[in-house]
Specification:
The protein has about 220 residues and is an alpha/beta fold. It has helices at about 5-15, 50-70, 80-90, 135-145, 160-170, 180-190, 195-205, 210-215; strands spanning about 20-25, 30, 35, 40, 75, 95-100, 110-115, 120-125, 130, 150-155, 175-180.
Length: about 220
């Protein structure tokens, strides 16, 4: 049985345990976008832990079946979605392709690497969903190549309203193993953070682009 709540909590525990997710409400990180953030997520760390890697692989596979039914191909999003996608494709016994961030500037100029079969029902695998823009670029590329995109799965999402809106506009469903709300609940319950930290973290999720300025005031 696919117990979504139990899996959300277990994945949150794993990500905090191995520091794939770091929470620093009073000493924020700076993202590539320039946003100040009290959280940093790098799910590639899960690949170094066989037990956690296996749990994620098995449950992403179950999530795909639960949310999207039968698919014929798995596509990873470069770069962090590639290893997760390969593991899932192996678990399902399906073909694998991956989508580059941009087309190669030499050789074939490929944007999608792997054998393409138009009309195949494909599920896209990511490690993380923030605003969804890079993920949806991959979805657009797959659709342009003739794939029928069933949807996208990822390990974790910040739960931004912008992501939900972007996926809705793109007519692309997505599902994740865990999320920001489950993570914060687990982190508070197990004393990774204080009640005051929780307030800061909630304010960030509500207005991430402006949070750094507000927090500094």
């Amino acid at each position: 049985m696919f117990n979504k709540s139990e899996i959300e909590q277990q994945v949150a525990e794993f990500l905090l345990q191995i520091k794939a997710i770091k929470l620093q409400p009073t000493n924020p990180f700076t993202w590539a976008s320039g946003w100040k953030s009290p959280i940093y997520c790098d799910n590639r760390a899960t690949l170094s832990h066989p037990t956690i890697r296996t749990y994620i692989r098995q449950n992403i596979t179950k999530l795909i079946t639960e949310e999207f039914g039968n698919v014929e191909c798995v596509a990873g999003v470069a770069t962090a979605g590639i290893p997760q996608g390969v593991l899932v494709a192996q678990e399902l016994g399906l073909p694998f392709v991956y989508v580059r961030a941009k087309a190669k500037e030499h050789g074939t100029g490929s944007l999608i690497e792997g054998e393409i079969f138009e009309g195949q029902r494909v599920v896209v695998v990511e490690d993380l969903v923030s605003t969804g823009k890079s993920s949806l670029q991959a979805v657009d590329a797959l659709r342009a190549a003739g794939y029928n995109v069933a949807g996208l799965v990822a390990i974790f999402t910040y739960g931004f309203d912008a992501a939900a809106e972007n996926f809705k506009k793109a007519n692309c469903r997505f599902a994740t193993l865990s999320n920001y709300k489950a993570l914060i609940n687990y982190a508070e319950e197990h004393q990774y953070i204080t009640k005051a930290d929780v307030e800061l973290l909630q304010k960030w999720r509500e207005a991430p682009a402006e949070w750094g300025q507000i927090a500094a005031e």
